[in-house]
Every structure is written in structure tokens, then in C-alpha cells.
Amino acid sequence: MNNNINNASFPNTRMRRNRLSSWSRRLVKENNISINDLILPIFVTDSEIKTAINSMPGIDRIPIMQIVEIVQEAKELGLPAIALFPETNSSLKDDIGTEALNEDNIICRTTRLIKENISDIGVITDVALDPYTSHGHDGILKNNEILNDETLYILCEQALIQAKAGSDVIAPSDMMDGRVNAIRKKLDKEGFINTQIMSYAAKYASSFYGPFRNAIGSESNLSSKSKKSYQMDFTNSNEALREVSLDISEGADMVMVKPGMPYLDIIYRIKDTFKMPTFAYQVSGEYSMIMSAINNQYLDKDKTILESLTCFKRAGADGILTYFALEAAKLIQKG
Ligand code: PBG
To answer: What gap in Å lies between CA 14 and CA 12, rounded to an integer?
Structure first.
């Protein structure tokens, strides 16, 4: 390509010709966002009433008794899947996240309730200990270290009880080494050969998770401690390819990159390299950032939501976990 200003192709080539009319722009469009690309994360709480999440304007923690209603709405809008996250009562938290292995914990109860009432929508459940540990870490903490192999044992049991409760997709978000392999083996051994694994394969230690930690109530537990000894360094990119390649070889059916918007280069490289079903998580901090600008009337709501999501598709994502999923589905339906 000749980038010279005296490029001989002008005026023969006028890039603006294709952009002139709306029908032509539609015709040459390279990427589209569809309702099939959207996954709605839902925060579930044991409390009787909906509680607003202060750091995420417009998002509530949903009481179990109202869960069927919201999942039904998601299904009617055509969303293929939802992802569940629990707010665990602090009295149930301990050092090793025992509550993660309670077959009647909030996630298992919610999953069963959804499965008893609604068919044909995927239920994704998160595997990691942070909603259940008193220190807010994703694994077992000993002498200031997160123990990898000891944590794996618990994660496998956690994955198993979620699968038993009816979870369709196990999503390990803990970033321990070897967890996809360990979970796959455990599920297979127990007969859950068709339970899928969506691994948070390239998950970075990010300040964009701040509002989520507030939502599930792990923020004060974690306080100033960081997850940098297990989540990835945001300065790295090649390392993401190694992480993804390991998770694929360990049996991941789908891989995810997280956070989303500041990490589009990572999504692009991963999709380009592995051609796997690749997902992006537009995380809580991205949601809150966009929402605060919308609420201050700095940005147009509908257009910004759709642009932010479509750009994930352009980068190569097959789907996006987004707190805007219901809103976006309605916008897409309107056309
Ligand atoms: C827990 C988990 C986190 C998110 C999803 N699963 C937080 C963390 O790793 O601290 C973040 C999601 C979001 O910010 O929207 N392992």
C-alpha cells in the first residue's frame, strides 16, 4: 500500500463513497453484534430484598426468590446464557472458603431453581473461592502465599457440586495453575462429561474489578492485598498466549479474556492464534465507568453501549459477558 500523499489512486479511490448512504454502510459492515453474543452476569443475594450496588449504578443484587423472573426476562430477550455470582453472608466466610463446598450454598440453590423453572438458557457458574473466603482471595492463603495445589482440590469439589446442581458451564476464574485439567478430570470421573468449561484463561490483576468486589462483598476483606501472585501482569501479552494454550490443552471448551475494553489487543491475538470460541468480559469497572459518563450526560447511553460491545466483536470475540446485556438486547431488538 502506498501511503504517500501523492498516492496515484486518488481520486479513483474515494473511501467515502461506500460510507455515503446508510444502505451502503450497512452493506459493507464487517461486524455486527447480535443477541446471541451476550451473556448476562447476575449477582445473587441471600437477603430478602433487592439491594443496589453503589459502585454499579443500575445494577442490583437479586434475591434468590426473584431470580427466575430475571432469567426468564433474559431468555425472552433471547440471551443464550447468564453467569451467576454470589454475595455470601460474611458469617459464612472462613479461611478456606468452606461455604464454596456447601451443596446448599447460594449458587447451587439458585442454579437448581433456574433449572427447575426455565429450560434452554445456559447457566454459567464461577469457580473461585473469593466470594467465600474471609481474606477475599481466590485460593487458600498460608504464610502470605496463595497455595496452588491445595486450592485445586477445593476448586474441583466446588466445580462438582455446581455441576450436580445443574450448571451447564463451569467458569474457573481463580487463575491457579492446572485447574482446568483438574476440574475436567473430576467432572469426567463423576459422569459430567458434557459439562462445559469456559476458562478465564487470560485474567489480569486489574483495578477494573473494584466495583465487583464491592458487589459480592469481598472488597473490605481483600482491602489493600493484591491478586498479583496469581492474576496476570497487565504489562504482558505473550504470557496470555501461554495461559490460553495451556487451558486449551487442559480441556477448556471456551476461553475468556478479562478485563475487556483495555485488552482488545489480547482478544485479537488469542482469537487469531487459537481460533477457539473466545469471550470477553466487560467487567464491573468498565460498566461503572461508562455508566457514570452516561449519568453525567457526557456520553449517549444507547450508542455507547452498542459501540463498546460491537468493538469486542471486531477484535475477534465470539461473545461478551456484560452488565449491559439486557439493555443491549433490547436495543438490538429495536434495530
Ligand atoms: C472472582 C471474580 C472476579 C470477577 C469475576 N470473577 C473478581 C476478582 O478476580 O477479583 C470480576 C468481574 C467484574 O469485575 O465484573 N474470581
So the answer is: 6
Residue 274 has a pLDDT of 98
> Which SS3 state, helix, strand or coil, does residue 161 take?
helix
In this prediction, residue 19 carries a pLDDT of 98
Return the best residue to mutate from 125, 135, 258, 287 for the ligand 1 pocket (most ligand atoms within 8 A of CB): 258
State residue 6's pLDDT score. 62
H-run or E-run covering 145: strand 145-147
Report the sign of the C-alpha dihedral through residues 172, 259, 80, 275, in that order. negative
Entry pTM: 0.96
Closest ligand 1 atom to 174 CA: 16
Nearest-atom index, ligand 1, CA of 208: 14
Distance 85 CA to ligand 1 centre (A): 9
The closest alpha carbon to 285, from 206, 201, 204, 173, belongs to 206
CA nearest ligand 1 atom 11, residue = 209
- Looking at every residue in the chain, the average pLDDT score rounds to 96
Ligand 1 pocket: which of 130, 216, 228, 263 to mutate (most atoms within 8 A of CB) = 130
pLDDT at position 4 is 57
Q: Is the CB of 55 under 6 A from ligand 1?
A: no
Does the pLDDT of residue 3 top 60, yes or no? no
Give, for 165, the enclosing helix (H) or strand (E): helix 148-165
The CATH homologous superfamily to which domain 32-334 belongs is: Aldolase class I (3.20.20.70)
Rounded to the nearest angstrom, the gap between the alpha carbon of residue 91 and the centroid of all alpha carbons in its chain is 27
Contacts of 213 (CB under 8 A, 6+ apart): 130, 136, 219, 222
Residues with catalytic annotation?
A: 203, 258
Nearest-CA residue for ligand 1 atom 5 is 173
Boundaries of every domain in the chain: 32-334
Q: What is the pLDDT of residues 157-171, one digit of tens each?
A: 999 999 999 999 999
